[in-house]
Structure formats: C-alpha cells, structure tokens
Amino acid sequence: KTMQSINGTLAKVKLSACENYEFNSDQYWVCVLRHTGRTLFHPVGTCKMGPSIDLSTVVDPRLRVKNIKRLRVVDASIMPMLPSAHINAAAIMIGEKGAAMIEKDHTTNEVFSDTCRV
C-alpha cells in the first residue's frame, strides 16, 4: 500500500542472463536471484568434509581435496553448519589445525605417500 500511495513502480533490472524470461514471472525472479543473490553472512558448508567413501564430500578429514594432489581446503567452508556463535574462533581453530596437519605431513613425507582415495 505504501508503494501504491506514492505511485511506486518496479524497476526492470536488465540482466542479460535472464532476458529469455518474461519480466516479473517466477522464472525471471528465480533467474535474477540466482545471478545476483548474495549473503551478508559467513558462508559455511560449501566444501563438505568427511570420509573418502562418502561421495558427497569434497575434503577428507585431513582437509585434502579428493582426487587432487597437494591441495587442501583450510577455512570455514568445511564446517557442516553455522555455529550458534560467530565463526571467527572456529575459523581460527580450523586454520591452526590445518597448519599443523600440513606441517606434520611435510615433515613425515605423508603428503607424498598418503593420497586421498575415493
């Protein structure tokens, strides 16, 4: 009602990725959201950690990316869900633990002999 009282109109956002959809259709807005939607929060859980036999995981428990040698993910993306508190402490812990794993693997040469298997 507020927008109607001031004769407000919906501005048409020109987004080339969505030009095949009719403006203001559900498909149009889904497309716009997929291409422009962002979060102001800390994304987590984008690189699932778990055992090698779990095909939905990205990294193993030693933070190694599956099927890619000498690459690890050492950040909040391995967290399965947001904690109830700010993620800063958890992210620092992940970094510290990841650094210790990398150091251990390099000093024992595990990084060259122990590969992540699927």
From TrEMBL:
<dbReference type="GO" id="GO:0016614">
    <property type="term" value="F:oxidoreductase activity, acting on CH-OH group of donors"/>
</dbReference>
<feature type="domain" description="Glucose-methanol-choline oxidoreductase C-terminal">
    <location>
        <begin position="7"/>
        <end position="95"/>
    </location>
</feature>
<dbReference type="GO" id="GO:0050660">
    <property type="term" value="F:flavin adenine dinucleotide binding"/>
</dbReference>
<protein>
    <recommendedName>
        <fullName>Glucose-methanol-choline oxidoreductase C-terminal domain-containing protein</fullName>
    </recommendedName>
</protein>
<dbReference type="InterPro" id="IPR007867">
    <property type="entry name" value="GMC_OxRtase_C"/>
</dbReference>
<dbReference type="InterPro" id="IPR012132">
    <property type="entry name" value="GMC_OxRdtase"/>
</dbReference>
<comment type="similarity">
    <text>Belongs to the GMC oxidoreductase family.</text>
</comment>
<dbReference type="Pfam" id="PF05199">
    <property type="entry name" value="GMC_oxred_C"/>
</dbReference>
<dbReference type="InterPro" id="IPR036188">
    <property type="entry name" value="FAD/NAD-bd_sf"/>
</dbReference>
